[in-house]
Amino acid sequence: MAAYHRPSTIGAALELLAAPDRVALAGGTLLNADRAPSRLEAVDLQALGLNRIETVGGGVRIGAMATLGEMSESPAVPDRLRAVARAEAPSTLRTLATVGGLVARRRPDSLLLAALLAHRGRVALAGPDGENEEDLARVLGEGVPAGTLITAATIDPTGAVAVAATGRTPADVPIVAAYGRRADGAVAVALTGVAPVPVLADGSDPTAGLVPEGDFRGSAEYRLELARVLTRRVTEELAAAGDEGER
Ligand SMILES: Cc1cc2nc3c(=O)[nH]c(=O)nc-3n(C[C@H](O)[C@H](O)[C@H](O)COP(=O)(O)OP(=O)(O)OC[C@H]3O[C@@H](n4cnc5c(N)ncnc54)[C@H](O)[C@@H]3O)c2cc1C
After folding, report:
1. In this structure, which topology does domain 160-245 adopt according to CATH?
2. pTM for the predicted model, two decimal places
3. I need a surface site. Which of 91, 96, 172, 216 has the fewest CB within 10 A?
């Protein structure tokens, strides 16, 4: 990085980021991992007070600077989601990597992002015109709008959850994974590994519209078959749990 800035208000951060060659620095697990010489200037978000995880109304608001480790330990976060946050990365990364960075990075194989989708994830974005909320699915599809900062992700913590995944080993990042959630009798399933970003699937036709890219871990056809099988597994598990499971 060519320079370092540490604003203490969101307005000051947005002003700094409006200039070219400046980039938001959160946990730095990706930005600081790049050892190539760079003209970029870092705008560090750590003094903005964005690391609270709190219950707001019926939802849970997770500040953009909350780390995956903090999320995995927060009593406000439902148990299964905490476990997914814990499994997302080893402790060396979990203590640094933030929820804002996770959303901005949009990794296709992130089970935590799929989980946030299934929990009706919304993203709070601060821009020159103030703060507004977008569906997480939209932010994942289109990317973080230019000139904005992620300030939080909000989820609905209620419902029963089922997770099914296939990886090369149980501890490996899954090739394809399904995170299912049943709330008020309706089931939502989000999939990883079958599109450029995690996606919400149509439960009755989980591979509709999906054109995954194959790689050494699994061809496109294999990934589509996994999507069908894993969606069926989580749907059946949620059906077997019934209404009781939602409590
Ligand atoms: C060895 C290694 C293994 C990894 N394994 C995994 C893995 O298994 N699963 C996984 O999901 N990720 C993994 N990652 C990627 C990374 O750790 C995560 O995506 C992480 O959540 C990034 O968060 P960060 O806070 O460190 O982001 P940073 O490195 O600080 O930033 C990453 C990007 O996000 C942008 N950004 C960050 N915060 C905001 C914000 N609030 N608003 C707007 N833009 C923002 C930055 O400008 C930058 O472009 C891995 C990374 C490494 C180096």
Report:
1. Enolase-like; domain 1 (3.30.390)
2. 0.94
3. 216
